[in-house]
Structures are given as C-alpha cells and as structure tokens.
C-alpha cells in the first residue's frame, strides 16, 4: 500500500543510503563487523519512524538537494518496508556476531547482494515484494 501520509523521498538520496549499507556490509565481511549495529539503528529509524526522522537522511537530503543531485521524488512506503528488512537482517547479523556465531555472514552477504541491486541498478527487491504483496492481498477498507 502506498503511503501518502509521509513525505516522499528523493531517489538518489535513498540510493546513496543503500550504497552506505553496501559499504558497511563489505567492510564487515572483510574483517570489521562491529559496524553492523549501526545499520540496524539506521534501518529502525528510517523503517519504523520514517526517513525524515533519521539524521543521516536529513543531512544527505540537504547536501544532495543543495548540489541539485537529489533526484526525483518517490513514494516512501516501499522504502520504509525495505528499511524494516534492513533492520531485521542487521539485527540478526549483530546478534549472531556478538554471540560468537560465524553465521552472521549470511545476512551480511544477503545485504551486500540486495543493496548492490538497489544502488547499482535501482532494483529494490523489498520494494518489489512490498508491491507484490499488496497486489494479491489488498488492504480491506471500511
């Protein structure tokens, strides 16, 4: 379901945030995984509270708008859903990491794959799943 109760987000700002997700996950897989909780925090802020409650999103929006690089506006509903998935995956990876389990690499690798699809090709798998879900299970009104 499209969300019209929250302001739309700029496409290139969201892609830059996804690139940061990609870089943090790559750094984690290369040997410094202690940044994963930061991704969980960012996913929680943008996914549950909204993009405009996240300080980094506001900063990136201001900078990129000033440079005329923010891009077109997109509905934020699907992007919020994608950030909820980021929150879940980064939280699971963090819990596995701090419990001493090497399986934290699985959600981190999944985040690398899906974030690459978003920032490089503008294909948001979570956004596609979000639209697919509401196509087959529309919300009941009334």
Can you describe what's shown?
- The protein has helices at residues 11-29, 36-49, 55-66, 76-98, 105-121, 125-136, and strands spanning 9-10, 73-74.
- Helix 2 runs antiparallel to helix 4, helix 4 packs antiparallel against helix 5 and helix 4 (76-98) packs across helix 6.
- It has a two-stranded antiparallel sheet with strand order 1-2.
- By secondary structure, the chain is mostly helical.
- The protein is 68% helix and 3% strand.
- The chain crosses the membrane at residues 20-44, 81-99, 111-133.
- This is DUF4395 domain-containing protein.
- Keywords: Membrane, Transmembrane, Transmembrane helix.
State the total count of DSSP E strands. Answer: 2
Mean pLDDT: 91
- Rg, rounded, reads 15 Å
- Structural class given helices, strands, pairing? mainly alpha
What string, H for helix and E for strand, traces the elements in order? EHHHEHHH
Poorly predicted runs:
none
Straight-line N-to-C gap: 15 Å
Q: Into which percent range does the helicity of residues fall?
A: 55-70%
Largest sheet: 2 strands, antiparallel
**What is the strand arrangement across the widest sheet?**
1-2
Number of domains: 1
How much of the residues is beta strand, in percent? Answer: under 5%
**Total helix count?**
6
Shape: globular
């Amino acid at each position: 379901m499209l969300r019209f109760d929250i302001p739309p987000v700029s496409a290139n700002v969201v892609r830059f945030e996804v690139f940061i997700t990609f870089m943090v996950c790559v750094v984690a897989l290369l040997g410094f995984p202690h940044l994963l909780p930061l991704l969980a925090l960012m996913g929680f802020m943008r996914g549950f509270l909204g993009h405009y409650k996240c300080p980094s999103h506001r900063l990136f929006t201001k900078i990129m708008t000033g440079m005329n690089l923010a891009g077109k506006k997109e509905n934020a509903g699907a992007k919020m859903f994608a950030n909820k998935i980021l929150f879940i995956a980064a939280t699971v990876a963090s819990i596995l990491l701090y419990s001493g389990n090497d399986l934290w690499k699985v959600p981190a690798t999944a985040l690398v794959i899906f974030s690459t699809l978003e920032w490089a090709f503008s294909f948001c798998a979570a956004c596609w799943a979000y639209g697919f879900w509401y196509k087959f299970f529309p919300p009941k009104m009334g």
